[in-house]
Amino acid sequence: MSLANYLRYQRQATGTKIVCEEGDCGACTVLLGKPQGDQLAYQPVNSCIQFLYQLDGAHVVTVEGLKVNGALNPVQEAMVNCHGAQCGYCTPGFVVTMCALFDPNLNPDSTEAKPVAACGSMTAQKVKDALTGNLCRCTGYEPIIRAGLSVDSSQITPLDDLYPVAPILAAYADLQAESILIETPPVNGNAAGRIFFGPVSVREAVAFKSQHPGTVIVSGGTDVGVVCNKRGLEPAVIMSASRLPDLDTIRLNTTDNESPTVSVGARVTLSALERFMESRVPELFKILNVFGAPQIKNAGTLAGNIANGSPIGDSLPFLMAMDAEVELSGLDGARRVNMNQLYTGYRKLDMKPDELIIRIYIPLPGPAELLKLYKVSKRKHLDISAFTAAIRLTQSTDGRIEAVRVAYGGVGPVVMRLPQTEAFLLGKDFTEAVFREGGKIARREITPISDVRGSSAFRLQLAENILLKFYLETCLENQDGRAAACP
Ligand SMILES: Cc1cc2nc3c(=O)[nH]c(=O)nc-3n(C[C@H](O)[C@H](O)[C@H](O)COP(=O)(O)OP(=O)(O)OC[C@H]3O[C@@H](n4cnc5c(N)ncnc54)[C@H](O)[C@@H]3O)c2cc1C
Ligand code: FES
Ligand code: FES
Predict the structure, then answer these.
(1) Where does the pLDDT of residue 256 fall: very low under 50, low under 70, confident under 90, or very high at 90 and above?
(2) What whole-number distance in Å separates Cα of residue 474 and Cα of residue 483?
(3) What pLDDT shows up at residue 124?
(4) What is the pLDDT of residue 79?
(5) Which CATH superfamily hosts domain 367-487?
(6) Confidence (pLDDT) at 482
(7) Are 439 and 468 in contact (CB under 8 A)?
(8) What is the Å distance from ligand 2's center to 399 Cα?
(9) Residues in the ligand 2 pocket, defined by CB under 6 Å
């Protein structure tokens, strides 16, 4: 059962609304608190694509739980004062997301959002960024943004004061240690019944998966949840990765001899990755910034994006261009597979039935490398890509192309490297003519389909143009004498 349905139908907490049921509108947003050291780290998530089995040992705060001493909190007051609601269907979702934005413990930046006297016309990118996952179809956004800007953050009661952390953590402590196995008897013609497993060690997870080869692993559930809600998937065997220890860490590994590598645990959320990469790989940060919406990134993981294997998965071109490696764990132990060898066909991975993704190792681009990532979609935010690209290049001191990697998504059944284009570019001078010719070769190397996101002809043109765009952008940005041939 989804959390949204549970709240509405079993707890009568009908403030949480269900509209799209696929993570797109934010009407069902709740705050999900998970233990992190001696804290509960709360983040807004879409409760329509969170299932109860993912939430063992987590604390959920709904819009009903945000009042302070029975009165509206400052965010709720601001929505009233600024006329931020008409039909009201989207309103609880906006309120919950905004409360996370202004809670000083959840978002240290919140104190920077200075209150203004009334519902003025000031804009604030932070309010807009926080609300990209909440859609309103009748009020319009201006009153809602004005409401955000009129909140006096000094009047906010932090969640930790509303719900003291210590007793919650004490109640959850025992839950963390034990795995959970739930087997339900056959119902409604489902002859085999259903099995749920929540392991607390990779060893248990591998053993279970080897005994149940059809197991559906659920990590953040942002892909699986949509398939369950919209395509009627009812997995007979589910394994939640949500309590696997040590997989929620990101580490920067530096040694004297090798270039730095970031290792990303399979439970690391896309939000955590976005924060980590902001200063380290600004190009990846740029792509993660337009990946889904905050609610999606607070639940979804890099491992899920890789395992889902979509030809338009936004992280994949980058991972291929960087020669990232995926660590898989199975009965025979762990092995690493280069991202460029991972996909064997449309959504097919070189992964044995007993294996699961444990970590991803990403070499960081060196200071002399040029890296650009592109996402083309109809809307800037909260949209699936029509086309994606990663181009990584090194120049020699005399300006020639010394090393190059080109990876495109949305142009075939899998995200792919373009070996003929790369071979053409290698050793050539860094000139506009070379990139124009490279674009023509790229066009011949792919076979995109037409679908709702773009026609084949559109994608072919993008594949050609993006190399020229790369050339022009890197010329403009290069201040240090490299790319000397640029006009
Ligand atoms: C509204 C919305 C917007 C979205 N926007 C984008 C976007 O902009 N760009 C984009 O690329 N994607 C987008 N997505 C898709 C999705 O959010 C991403 O693919 C996300 O990274 C999936 O991660 P997850 O942890 O939620 O995966 P899950 O749904 O938990 O799992 C996805 C798949 O991976 C498998 N899996 C998960 N963990 C493991 C593991 N450790 N080992 C082996 N297999 C595993 C699951 O069995 C499943 O097949 C969007 C989805 C929604 C609902
Ligand atoms: S109901 Fe639209 S995101 Fe959940
Ligand atoms: S108030 Fe009606 S959809 Fe937003």
Answers:
(1) low
(2) 8
(3) 74
(4) 96
(5) CO dehydrogenase flavoprotein, C-terminal domain (3.30.390.50)
(6) 52
(7) yes
(8) 51
(9) 18-21, 23-28, 46, 48
Residue type at position 113: A
User: What local confidence, expressed as pLDDT, does residue 43 receive?
Assistant: 96
CB 46 within 8 A of CB 75: no
Polymer length in residues for the chain: 487
Tell me the per-residue pLDDT of 54-101, one tens digit each, with 9 for 90 and over: 998 899 999 999 999 999 999 999 999 999 999 999 999 999 999 999
Domain ranges within the chain, ordered by starting residue: 3-162, 176-240, 367-487
| Bridge-based pairing state of the strands 325-330 and 333-338 | antiparallel
Q: What residues pair up with 390 in beta bridges, in sequence order?
A: 373, 407
Q: Is 18 helix (H, G, I), strand (E, B) or coil?
A: coil
Query: CA-CA distance, 476 to 396, in Å (whole number)?
Result: 18
Place of tokens 């679908």: 451
From the options 3.30.43.10, 3.10.20.740, 3.40.50.2300, 3.30.2090.10, give the CATH code of 176-240: 3.30.43.10
Residue 193 has a pLDDT of 84
Q: What is the mean pLDDT of residues 35-41?
A: 89
Confidence of residue 52 (pLDDT cuts 50, 70, 90): very high
The pLDDT of 424-448, averaged and rounded, is 97
Which residues, in sequence order, are bridge partners of residue 301?
Answer: 269
Binding site membership of 89 for ligand 3 (Cβ less than 6 Å): yes
Task: Say how many Å lie between the CA of residue 133 and the centre of ligand 3.
Answer: 14
Ligand 2, atom nearest to 23 Cα: 3
Arithmetic mean of pLDDT, 218-227: 97
Tell me which residue of 377, 442, 372 sits closest to 412, measured CA to CA.
442
Degrees (nearest 5) of the Cα angle 378, 135, 291? 50
